[in-house]
Amino acid sequence: MRLSRQVKQRVLAALMNQPCTRPSPAPAPAPAPTTLLSRPPPYAPPSTVTFSTMNKNTEQEHLDAVFKQKRALRSRVRKALKAMEPDLRSQEDNAIQRIILESPWFKSSRRLCAYICCSALREVDTSKLLSETLSNPTGDGHTQRGKILYVPRVEDKNCHMRMLRISCIDDLVANSMDILEPAPVDGDGNVREDVMLANEPVDLFLLPGLAFDRSGRRLGRGGGYYDTFLKKYLELAKARDWKQPLLVVLSYSVQIMDEGVIAVTPNDIPVDALVSPIGVIPISQTALDRMKL
Ligand SMILES: Nc1nc2c(c(=O)[nH]1)N(C=O)[C@@H](CNc1ccc(C(=O)N[C@@H](CCC(=O)O)C(=O)O)cc1)CN2
Ligand SMILES: Nc1ncnc2c1ncn2[C@@H]1O[C@H](COP(=O)(O)OP(=O)(O)OP(=O)(O)O)[C@@H](O)[C@H]1O
C-alpha cells in the first residue's frame, strides 16, 4: 500500500517523535545510562535434548504446550504494554535509546539491522537510533564513516522476511500490518541491497519482541519471521567465516520476565544482550567481549 505524501508525513512525524496518544510533558530525568545490571547467569541456549529423546507424539504434545504457553504470555505482555502510562513509556523510550546511542558498541558498529518501531504494537521506539544511523555523522573520532542500515520487509506469511538497505527514512511505505518497510526498489529505480547478498557482515542487530529474560530467551509476535531470518543469517556468517553479529533486544521494564517464564522451542534463537531503561544486561560471552562491560 502506497501512502499519500500527507499521510506519510504524519506517520513519519509520529515515528520521529514519540509514539504516545497524547502530548507528553517534559521528560523526567532518565536513569544513568550504560549501567551494567545484575551479573549475567550462565548463557543457556534453548536445549534440544528433550526433543531428540522424545517420540513423535510426545514431541508434538510438547510443542503444542509450548505454543500454548507462548500465546498466553503474549496476551499478558500485550495487556501490560497497553496499561503502560504514556509518560512512562516515553521516559523508557528515551532512556533505552540514550543508553544505546552513548554505548561504544553502537558507536563503533558499521553495518546494522534494526526494526522500524510501530507505535500501535507498543514497541520500544527506535526513531533516534535510526536517525543517528542514517545521519552519516563525522567528527567524533568514532564515526568517521557512516553506518549502513538494513530494515525488515515481510515478503509473505510463511515466516519470510528480508532485510533491505535504506539510506533515508522517507523511503518507507506501510505494509498490510501497518508497519513501515522499504519497497524492493528505491526511488531511483535501483534494487535495494538484501543483507543476505551483501559482501560484508552485519555487526549489530537491534531486535523487537514481546518478552525477554536474562538468559537470552526472546518471545516474538508469533510470526516466526525473526527466528527464521536469524537462523539463516547466522548460518551465512558461519559459512563465510565472518564474526557473528551481536543480537540485542530493546525492552521496556514490563517486558523482562523471570527465568522459566518464557517457553522455547529449538527454533528460538537466543540473544546476546538486552537493553532496558536501567541498563544493559549482557548475556553471552560475545556480549561480554564486545560490549566492553
Ligand atoms: N517493527 C516491527 N517490524 C517487524 C516485526 C516486528 O515485530 N516489529 N516483525 C517481527 O516478526 C516482522 C513482522 N511481523 C509481525 C507479526 C505480527 C504482527 C502483529 O500485528 N501482531 C499482533 C497480533 C496479531 C494477531 O495475533 O492476530 C500483535 O502482536 O499485537 C506484526 C508484525 C517484520 N517487521
Ligand atoms: N527456523 C525456523 N524455521 C521454520 N519455521 C520456524 C523457524 N522458527 C520459527 N518457526 C515457526 O514460526 C512460527 C512462530 O514461531 P514462534 O512462536 O517461536 O515465533 P516468535 O519467536 O514469536 O516470532 P519471531 O521469530 O517472528 O519473533 C512457528 O510456527 C514456528 O514453527
Task: Report on this structure.
With 293 residues, the protein is an alpha/beta fold. It contains eight helices and twelve strands. It has helices at residues 5-16, 49-52, 56-82, 86-101, 104-107, 127-134, 225-239, 285-290; strands spanning 111-114, 148-156, 160-166, 172-174, 180-182, 204-207, 211-213, 218-219, 246-250, 256-257, 273-276, 279-282. The strands form three sheets. Strands 3-2-1-6-9-11-12 form a seven-stranded mixed beta sheet, with helices on both faces. The model is unreliable at 1-49 and 137-144 (pLDDT under 50). The protein binds the ligand Nc1nc2c(c(=O)[nH]1)N(C=O)[C@@H](CNc1ccc(C(=O)N[C@@H](CCC(=O)O)C(=O)O)cc1)CN2 and adenosine-5'-triphosphate.
Describe the structure using short key phrases.
293 residues, alpha/beta, disordered N terminus, binds the ligand Nc1nc2c(c(=O)[nH]1)N(C=O)[C@@H](CNc1ccc(C(=O)N[C@@H](CCC(=O)O)C(=O)O)cc1)CN2, binds adenosine-5'-triphosphate, EC 6.3.3.2, ATP binding, FTHF_cligase, 5-formyltetrahydrofolate cyclo-ligase
